[in-house]
# Entry
Amino acid sequence: MRLLCAAILLFLAQSATAQETLRRVDLTPKMQRGLAADLQAQGYNCPRAKLAFVRPPSAYGNVIQIICGPRGRDEIYEGTSFRLTYHPNGGVSIVPCDAYTCAVEN
# Structure
């Protein structure tokens, strides 16, 4: 599951141009569950990944931002935004968003 989500998101990240700051990704239910499972495995409270945005790549790999919410409802939780960096070696780094990690670059 994790590899499928990572492969799809990496493809979308690579297709983004340098001009784009954020681009929303429509998540399938399978992707929502897989991303939530990745976050939960790292100890974060994420019942379901609700929104995803492709961000410009960093020096460490392709980056997406995930916002979580409850299962079965069209809501998001405040303060549940995470930055996921997919490294070329197959690893992923997850950090909660703050003013620095998820700042929109001008």
User: Anything to note?
Assistant: Residues 2-96 form one domain.
